[in-house]
Design goal:
Structural class of chain A: mainly alpha
Radius of gyration of chain A: 18 Å
Helix content of chain A: over 70%
Strand content of chain A: under 5%
CATH topology of the largest domain in chain A: Tetracycline Repressor, domain 2
CATH class of the largest domain in chain A: Mainly Alpha
Oligomer: homodimer
Order of helices and strands of chain A: HHHHHHHHHH
Distance between the termini of chain A: 40 Å
CATH superfamily of the largest domain in chain A: Tetracycline Repressor, domain 2
Chain lengths: 206, 206
DNA sequence: TCAAAACTTGCACAGCGTGCAACAACCGTG
DNA sequence: CACGGTTGTTGCACGCTGTGCAAGTTTTGA
């Protein structure tokens, strides 16, 4: 796999656990009190950690909530990077993004989309996550394709793909308040549908 | 035109002026000290207004900087709304967005893109502006097309169009530090190019 | 076993964002 | 013009945010 020089000692594990605990605490508070109506001190207390340590891990309460989104996009990037290089680019991406629906805690992602609807800071954090993912995917694509392709082509393509994926997830989140066994397949279908529209140049409003 | 019940008294004008003055002060400070290294108090002082009044107009220093972006998107929405309804949707949008390059202070927009590159909060504010514009355009399109078209189709389409426009502007901003007479046409060409790629389903990396 | 490296914590401090109440500018009406 | 209602501005107070710093504590590797 693509392991970056990894000494999996106690330290690394502790940090991962702490990070998770903080994010979990934030999510719990957001569920019980509503997003945007709790303080960093509360999160820290729930996570069993000092206020100062919270800020060693996250820049804001919203960023902590946003860890789930971040990990989803991390997964998407990983899957895309592992894809074989022969196929047409757009088809490769359709395959990669439809596969991301097997991420854990799928329901929580929809939940976060819904929370962001009435919480500007959280929405901004999410948009930022997508933006950074976009940058990374653009880099990956340009490395894969070499110098022969224009930067504008790649950025427009990747941006559009992510926009369609986002639209599919939002659509899904809006209609799937309580996810069940089939909702993963449901989301996947929507992503494929949106990306197929893109491949067809949106010629057919179907 | 589409005037919303407008009593153009001294009050309205004062508010517009104040808003402009604050945004202008913020931009000046960002230019001289770099974005993110000045306080709201400084902006307020430069604008000849109290700190409290600043917060009556903007939610943060970055939002103040972002007024230019906001007005650009406002213009885009207006032009799109004024477009005749007969043509294919995507062609209508290509026309509308390429026409937005005639906005005032075009150079400042590129400047803001470049500032956002190393200022997370400003970047988030800009992304948020684009997101809200997307929502409004989606509404406009759905009103125009009626209930016959799927929500996913519209959101995916509008998201992609905006992504391509953004990509074009970023590309342009990166290569055009000091805009001259021709740079408006340059930007317009890039927007048309990116949106044409979209219409062709990105089939040809050209 | 021990010292260096990495992480946590408390503290202090500047700055942020907002509710509130007093004040000032503007508006329409008579 | 005058005057009351409406709308915008300002100062103040208060809690929360985000960060540098220095003193602890835990982990690491030798």
């Amino acid at each position: 796999m693509a392991e970056t020089t990894e000494p999996p000692g106690r330290r690394e594990q502790n940090k991962i656990d702490t990070r998770r605990a903080i994010a979990e605490a934030a999510l719990t508070l957001a569920r019980s009190q509503g997003p945007g109506s709790f303080t960093v001190d509360q999160i820290a207390a729930h996570a069993g950690v000092s206020r100062r340590t919270f800020f060693n891990y996250f820049r804001s309460a919203e960023d902590a909530l946003n860890l789930r989104t971040e990990s989803f996009l991390e997964l998407a990037i990983g899957i895309f990077a592992a894809q074989p290089a022969g196929l047409p680019l757009l088809d490769t991406m359709i395959g990669a993004f439809s596969a991301t629906t097997q991420v854990e805690h799928l329901g929580a992602h929809g939940e976060l989309f819904r929370m962001a609807a009435d919480n500007p800071e959280l929405l901004r954090a999410q948009l930022h996550s997508w933006e950074r993912a976009e940058t990374r995917i653009v880099q990956a694509v340009e490395e894969r394709l070499g110098d022969g392709v224009s930067h504008l082509y790649v950025t427009a393509l990747v941006g559009s793909v992510l926009s369609c994926t986002k639209a599919a997830m939002q659509d899904w989140a809006g209609e799937t308040p309580e996810p069940d066994d089939a909702s993963g397949a449901d989301l996947e279908a929507r992503i494929v549908r949106a990306l197929s529209l893109l491949r067809d140049g949106f010629a057919n409003p179907a």
